[in-house]
């Protein structure tokens, strides 16, 4: 038998990229959260999935929103990851780019505009499935996460 901590350690051995999910609430305030539980589901149609803790502050915003942005972070955007993971406080407001009226982070490795298809409760998480409506690719290397630490690809 294993413990929750052992399970968490085991899952931490799976290296992932880092994304920031952004959406506007009904008051048009931008909310964002760092997420590494992100995956491609389907090529045709182009579908993705993200998984968030049910207590995540952005859950209400994503439940209300029809569309949201996904910014796949480059290795030069560690600060964004830390800000949206509440690991770092900043006095400066984060600037966003808007594509099809959806906020994304500037100069992210990939910027995606997604339209929510469904949400599924799964244990202590909610999985959001969305269709990718637009995307932009930019040059750079990904910011990675493994074993509870940020990593970068070696040259």
TrEMBL record:
Please list which residues make up the signal peptide.
none
What GO annotations for molecular function exist for this entry? FMN binding; riboflavin reductase (NADPH) activity
Q: Please verify whether the record's keywords include Oxidoreductase.
A: yes
- Superkingdom, taxonomy of origin: Bacteria
Name the Pfam families for this protein.
Flavin_Reduct (PF01613)
Q: Does the keyword Oxidoreductase apply?
A: yes
Output this protein's name. NADH-FMN oxidoreductase RutF, flavin reductase (DIM6/NTAB) family
Q: Which Gene3D superfamilies match?
A: Electron Transport, Fmn-binding Protein, Chain A (2.30.110.10)
Cross-referenced InterPro entries, in alphabetical order? Answer: Flavin_Rdtase-like_dom, NADH-dep_flavin_reductase, Split_barrel_FMN-bd
List keywords of the entry alphabetically: Oxidoreductase
Flavin reductase like domain: residues covered = 11-152
